[in-house]
Amino acid sequence: MHSLNISITTSIPKEIVYTIFRAL
């Protein structure tokens, strides 16, 4: 799970990740 999370965060900017997390 950790490796997947790292891959996602590296692929897309943290800003987008934060927006998605906020939506959830």
Task: Give keywords.
24 residues, 83% helix, mainly alpha
What does this structure look like?
The N and C termini lie far apart (18 Å). It contains 2 helices and no strands. It has helices at residues 2-11, 14-23. With 24 residues, it is mostly helical. The protein is 83% helix and 0% strand.
Chart the SSEs and their pairings.
Layout: H1 2-11, H2 14-23
Overall mean confidence score, pLDDT:
76
Can you write the helix and strand succession as a string? HH
Work out the number of β strands: 0
Low-pLDDT sequence parts? none
Structural class per helix/strand content?
A: mainly alpha
Biggest sheet overview: none
Distance between the termini: 18 Å
Put the structure in a nutshell.
By secondary structure, the chain is an all-alpha fold. Helices cover about 85% and strands about 0% of the residues.
